[in-house]
Write a structure and sequence with these properties.
10-stranded mixed beta sheet; 17 helices; 12 strands; Rossmann fold; alpha/beta
């Protein structure tokens, strides 16, 4: 048990990992499929022995359907199975459906391993003591592919199995969410995306990216930001989007899906895979199905901080209300216009140098916090505006207006847009989380990754300036003005 807890807590981020030599600091990112599946890759690959039932006919509408899409073909499989067990304690009820699609390496009774995607509709909850014993036995199995016996508590819940499905293909994710909504309808929906994330940075797919939204470590495919919009458009409206992924609580990301999501829960920093407390979430939905999406999001964010605190870690999470985006964009655009009119780039330079930054490439896991700060692509928006506002002189009417617009923008972020921001400790770049306010965005780095702007832009799948947030708000124009002489 202690060995696996060590894996989960001290080695498992939803971002790049460090090289390791043994199980206690298991290399979760650089481990190849040959490492995970071992000799089972040679010869023919048999499908794991798992019971399956026919897809359910459309059920009666319930209060909630919780949809979980878990891309766990690498080391994330440990915490994903753990969370599946926790959800099974509650299961589906007369008020709440729980449907899961999970991809991971699984070993059959003959010891042959293959990567499987298992679609489940959880039935009744299981006895907590029985599930706790299953968790204990699972933790004692050690590294490698997941033993088929792990699925025993779910044998009546499995609806479909597929081998080697590309879980980084947004169309496959949309297929799952549409299936879930059709067969398990509800008045309200929560959509949990479990897997790697990389904020706005879409690395070239042909270069086998090592991070990205729902990165499939087997195929190298992932969901780009434009594809994220397509996914949510196909999925339709959800009340709550829960991103158990690194770096996803960015203005560029949430803006991309704001028309399809009422409330978004996530983190601007690398996330520990202890994740959110979904057992608590299901208990809450059953006891109070009329709970607001914002309050439910707050409970989830709180649960992540409680888990990080329990293991003496640091982290932060926030809850963002999409309905507040029009007001936010108005305040942001007013601030940009006023700041450009004030024409004081020294204050901008101070913001760029001193804003709380987040580890964008997992650099702190393999090098130093200082290096991570230098190459970080993202910073907290509130903190950036606060620094620029404080450094701006009061010598001209334009500068006084810019300071006023800065205060108005900060007030709107903290009082309206971000419903809840919770944290403990410091960022991976050794900045106090207390300075942040739960929404990051692209603040170009102190040192350009890939050597130059040309090298940087040649390395990405989605050009930053083509993102809706950059083109539909004035943030893109602000960056071009602020950096035109750099």
């Amino acid at each position: 048990m202690k060995k696996i807890i060590s894996i989960l807590i001290f080695s498992m981020f939803f971002a790049a990992g460090v090289k390791a030599e043994n199980l206690s600091n298991f290399d979760l990112e650089n481990m190849s499929y040959e490492d995970i599946l071992g000799d089972g890759l040679s010869g023919s690959i048999a499908e794991p022995v798992l019971s399956a039932i026919a897809p359910a006919s459309p059920a009666d509408e319930k209060e909630w359907t919780v949809m979980v899409y878990a891309n766990a073909k690498d080391g994330l499989r440990y915490s994903q199975v753990w969370q599946m067990f926790d959800m099974k304690k509650i299961g589906s009820t007369d008020k709440v459906n729980v449907v899961i699609e999970s991809g991971m390496p699984i070993k059959d009774v003959n010891g042959v391993a293959s990567t499987m995607t298992v679609r489940m509709a959880l039935g009744d909850g299981a006895d907590s003591q029985y599930i706790d014993q299953c968790i204990k036995e699972f933790f004692e199995m050690g590294e490698g592919a997941i033993e088929h016996s792990v699925f025993k508590p779910f044998e009546d819940d499995i609806v479909e199995r597929k081998k080697n499905e590309d879980m980084g293909d947004w169309k496959n994710i949309a297929n799952f969410t549409k299936w879930a909504k059709t067969n398990y309808p509800a008045k309200r929906y929560a959509f949990i995306i479990y897997g790697h994330g990389n904020g706005f940075f879409d690395k070239k797919k042909q270069e086998q990216p090592d991070k990205g939204i729902s990165l499939d470590m087997q195929t190298g495919n992932y969901v780009t930001l434009p594809e994220f919009t397509s996914l949510m458009k196909e999925t339709g409206k959800v009340d709550l989007l829960i991103m158990q992924s690194c770096l996803m609580q960015m203005a560029e990301v949430v803006y991309q899906v704001k028309n399809y999501v009422d409330v978004a829960v996530g983190s601007s920093e690398l996330m520990w895979s202890v994740g959110y407390d979904f057992e608590m979430m299901l208990k809450t939905l059953n006891s109070n199905p009329n709970i607001s999406s914002e309050v439910l999001g707050r409970l989830l964010a709180d649960s992540y901080i409680e888990r990080t605190k329990a293991y003496k870690l640091s982290g932060h999470a926030s809850v963002i209300s999409s309905s507040k985006f029009p007001g936010f964009v108005n305040k942001l655009n007013n601030w940009v216009d006023a700041t450009i009119s004030a024409d004081n780039k020294n204050s901008i330079d101070e913001g760029v140098k001193n804003v709380i930054r987040f580890d964008f490439f997992g650099l702190t896991l393999s090098t130093t916090s200082e290096v991570a700060r230098n190459f970080s692509l993202s910073g907290d928006l509130y903190d950036f505006v606060e620094i620029v506002t404080e450094q701006l002189p009061r010598n001209t009417p334009e500068q006084k207006i810019a300071r006023q617009k800065g205060r108005e923008l900060m007030d709107y972020i903290s009082r309206d847009l971000v419903y809840e921001y919770v944290y403990i400790g410091e960022s991976k770049t050794e900045c106090d989380f207390g300075r942040a306010h739960g929404l990051s965005l692209h603040v170009p780095p102190l040192k350009m990754p890939f050597g130059s702007m040309e090298g940087f832009e040649n390395s990405i799948e989605t050009l930053y300036w083509d993102l809706p947030f950059a083109s539909e708000t004035k943030w893109g124009a602000f960056l071009k003005w602020a950096y035109e002489e750099k």
